[in-house]
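Hi R.,

As promised on Friday, here is the backbone we talked about, encoded as structure tokens. Could you run it through your design pipeline when you get a chance and send me back a sequence?
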């Protein structure tokens, strides 16, 4: 059974085609990243999964339940943490969570037990009776995820869960999310932090202009779309004429360093070193090899950087 199956999803807003036959599956227990620039179709797809907008064509199933024909069954299996805060800000964390649990019809005794367990799991027990507006941004984000988990969903959708949170709190949230996923919760993440997607997600799908452009593990996408970059630093300035036979790697000389890029890092490095070590009294001071990252993939697939996506 898949946690999510999207088949040929189409959504038109008059002449605007927000989704163009989008198909993807998310495996049960997977940590999946949905990436794309603003206006790419991410929000429309998430709203369709949540049953908040009706598709113009195609189907979406959550754990084999159609999100339209079996809306209640599908929605009960989903927890959603939006980017913007949706709390009663003058209520305490505890009161917010208890009220939300009541919307799902959870009995009072079970409701309290569930809320206390979540507060403990996310390190919020000491702040349980503090009003939401008095909490730090990181604590508010944690409370928002707690709210999404009150109904004990099998699928958790997180929309920018660490936006506006400092580095330390981001890494704390990563720790909580990894633990949650390890315990069996399927997670779908949207984020504009490239390191977040690369660190957390088993697979990522990049959507642009209403279409899924690529879908694979971060490492497989990096291997497919990114060349290796090698930089070698030496103890003395280099002469570009020495590398005339290395044109295949497009070597670039800058004083005491030579850099090049290509598909095969080992062969490229070996050839550059052979040239350098032929020169009398030259020695290598440092070597760095960079394979690229998910942001390079994103740029090649969408034509936009992650920074541009936040505007």
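Update: got your reply. Pasting your designed sequence below so it's all in one thread:
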């Amino acid at each position: 059974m898949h946690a999510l199956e999207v088949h040929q999803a189409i959504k038109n807003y008059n002449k605007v085609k927000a989704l163009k036959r989008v198909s993807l599956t998310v495996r049960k227990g997977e940590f999946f990243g949905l990436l794309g620039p603003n206006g790419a179709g991410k929000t429309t797809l998430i709203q369709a999964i949540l049953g908040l907008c009706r598709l113009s064509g195609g189907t979406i199933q959550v754990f084999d339940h159609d999100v339209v024909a079996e809306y209640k069954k599908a929605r009960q299996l989903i927890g959603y943490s939006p980017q913007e805060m949706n709390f009663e800000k003058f209520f305490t964390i505890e009161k917010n969570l208890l009220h939300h649990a009541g919307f799902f019809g959870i009995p009072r005794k079970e409701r309290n037990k569930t809320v206390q367990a979540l507060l403990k799991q996310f390190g919020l027990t000491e702040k349980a009776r503090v009003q939401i507006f008095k909490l730090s941004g990181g604590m508010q984000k944690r409370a928002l995820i707690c709210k999404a988990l009150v109904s004990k969903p099998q699928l958790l959708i997180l929309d920018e869960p660490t936006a506006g949170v400092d580095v330390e709190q981001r890494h704390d949230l990563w720790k909580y999310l990894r633990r949650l996923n390890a315990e069996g919760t399927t997670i779908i993440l949207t984020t504009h932090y490239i390191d977040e997607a690369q660190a957390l997600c088993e697979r990522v799908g990049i959507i642009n202009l209403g279409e899924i452009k690529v879908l694979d593990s971060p490492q497989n996408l990096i291997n497919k779309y990114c060349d290796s970059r090698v930089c070698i630093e030496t103890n003395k300035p280099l002469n570009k004429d020495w590398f005339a036979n290395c044109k295949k790697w497009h070597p670039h000389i800058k004083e005491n360093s030579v850099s090049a890029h290509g598909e095969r890092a080992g062969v490229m490095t070996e050839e550059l070193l052979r040239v350098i070590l032929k020169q009398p009294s030259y020695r290598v001071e440092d070597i760095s090899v960079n394979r690229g990252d998910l942001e390079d993939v994103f740029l090649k697939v969408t034509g936009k950087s992650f920074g541009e996506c936040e505007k």
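One thing I noticed while checking it: Residues 167-182 form the longest helix (16 residues).

Thanks again,
M.
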